[in-house]
Amino acid sequence: MKIVTAAEMREIDRITTERLGVLSLTLMENAGTAVAEFVISRYPSAERIGVICGKGNNGGDGFVAARKLHRAGKGVRIILLAEPSQLRGDAAEMFGRLPIPPVIVRSNDELKGEHAQAVFESELLLDAVLGTGFKPPVSGLYAEAIKLMNASSVPVIAVDIPSGADADVMGEQTGTAARADAVITFTAPRPAHIFGRLTDGSTVIAPIGSPDEAIVSSLQLNLITPRDIASLFGPRPVAANKGSFGHVLVVGGSGGKAGSVAMAGMAALRSGAGLSTVATPKSVLATVAGFHPEVMTEGLGETDAGTISRGAIEPVDALIKGKTVLAVGPGISRNPETSEFVRNLVTKCKTPLVLDADGLNAFEGRAEELTGKERTLVITPHPGEMARLVASTVGAVQRDRIKVARTFAREHELIVVLKGHRTLIAQPDGTIWVNTTGNPGMATGGTGDILTGMVAGLIAQNPAHIAPAVIAAVHLHGLAGDVACESMGEHSLVATDLLKALPAAFQRIRDSALGATVEIRG
After folding, report:
1. What is the pLDDT of residues 315-373, one digit of tens each?
2. Does the first or last residue of the chain, that is N or C, have fewer Cβ atoms within 10 Å of its Cβ?
3. Model-wide pTM > 0.90
């Protein structure tokens, strides 16, 4: 699903109406209907609903929602923050269809009046004052109405975007903006819906009639949705065997860090790979082998510190033969000799390769050696590892995550999975996919190793569709974390809980792909 600017959204609406023949009134009717349906389904006990409307099209969406809620038997009260004569076009038409008279508010004094205050005392408020076409700052009557919504203790549902927010801002909003317990937007998200932290609740993206061919964006930013990846999780051929779904080789582990590589190896299997082999120092081989019987193991020569030695390069070269994908890094350590082994292996390997953790740190100060030219290379850094690769700081990376990931992917001709809140998958052509699954409970040791194994496992099953496989793995990983969090809670969640939650996560993707509406959290 494309992420579009506010200006691009206006153009999408125009093309939908003028070129494709969908009436703008139909778009507004569908938008207001989506809002009303959300309120009825999520807040069924709310009987008294206040709808605060501006004079633009956002207010028109609010008029439609108010009409639909009234017909559903709700006690609806409406404020119009303007003279009715100021309404134009579709908003004026929808105002004329209201089944109940609104409270007309033209000044701050009238906003403080008895009738207006009664609306703000409803059990739920709809914020339909300003939409995504607005550019801050907000002032005057609208600002006062926003302050009253923010002072209210009842849920506030934003129509399109919280009033006063800038739809094109990717970070914190400044100035006066409404709070929101949920946001219902339409057709395609704008940057603020994904990166602006407009709500701690749900953001729903509802289709209202614009066909896919009308949705064009220059941002090269896409939101991952179940519909984008569900085709990778379809039924398997009846005659399939373990060789049909690829063989993953995971190289890593060291004394005290055997669990990392073991989790990665098992994650490859849980995500659907046919076979998974873990190559690890001989001294930790028994630990890895005991983690799960389905994971095969190979012992490697080691240093005195219990890490993989440089002499292991030839045995690993032999092991790579016949494997579909190689994953390097989980638990491998930063031992200098081991780092030399990693660089040697990664530089010469032509098999699709996923590089993570200390495998990435082996290239600190030597990032120019890290290239995906004429091969598949996927790196999965957290912000600290990314900072080391680009000789910067974590703060600098976090302040401009999109630029950092996109630039590195382009310059090094590889796929970057920059982990964190809103994990980014940057492709060599500069296209970025944004993931919105996952939760703070996943901020615990080992979840990155699970992701490494899942990325490798999905690539193993889809060697002709590398980028979609990586995108699917990231989304599935976060969704497994969300499923696990529902039963374990954020504080008790550990990495292996994701492995147990994967079957339910797979099913949720299949189920969600059937719906037209997209919902994201936070």
Report:
1. 999 999 999 999 999 999 999 999 999 999 999 999 999 999 999 999 999 999 999 99
2. C
3. yes
Dihedral sign, CA of 458, 462, 463, 464?
negative
Query: Which residues are within 8 A (CB) of 459 and not within 5 positions of it... i.e. 6 or more apart?
Result: 246, 324, 325, 352, 354, 376, 378, 466, 469, 470, 473
CB 374 within 8 A of CB 348: no
Q: What is the DSSP letter of 362?
A: T
How far apart CA 429 and CA 221 sit, in angstroms, is: 12
Would the pLDDT of 133 be above 90?
no
Contacting residues for 122 by C-beta, under 8 A, at least 6 apart: 46, 48, 49, 50, 77, 154
* Helices 258-270, 447-461: inter-axial angle, 10-degree rounding: 40
306: helix, coil or strand? coil
Secondary structure class of 369 (helix, strand, coil): helix
- The residue behind tokens 């008294």 is 48
pLDDT for residue 516: 87
Among residues 308, 381, 376, which one has the least CA distance to residue 343? 308
Here the tokens at position 298 are 């190979």
End-to-end CA distance of the chain: 18
Please give the DSSP secondary-structure letter assigned to residue 429: T
Tokens of 189: 């998200």
Residue 360 is predicted with a pLDDT of: 98
**Alpha-carbon torsion 348, 349, 353, 358, what sign?**
negative
Q: Is the pLDDT of residue 174 over 90?
A: no
Q: How confident is the model at residue 175 (pLDDT cuts 50, 70, 90)?
A: confident
Given a contact cutoff of 8 angstroms between Cβ atoms, the answer to whether 218 and 431 are in contact is no
* The amino acid at 255: G
CA distances (Å), 125 to each of 47, 112, 370, 521, in order? 11, 17, 53, 20
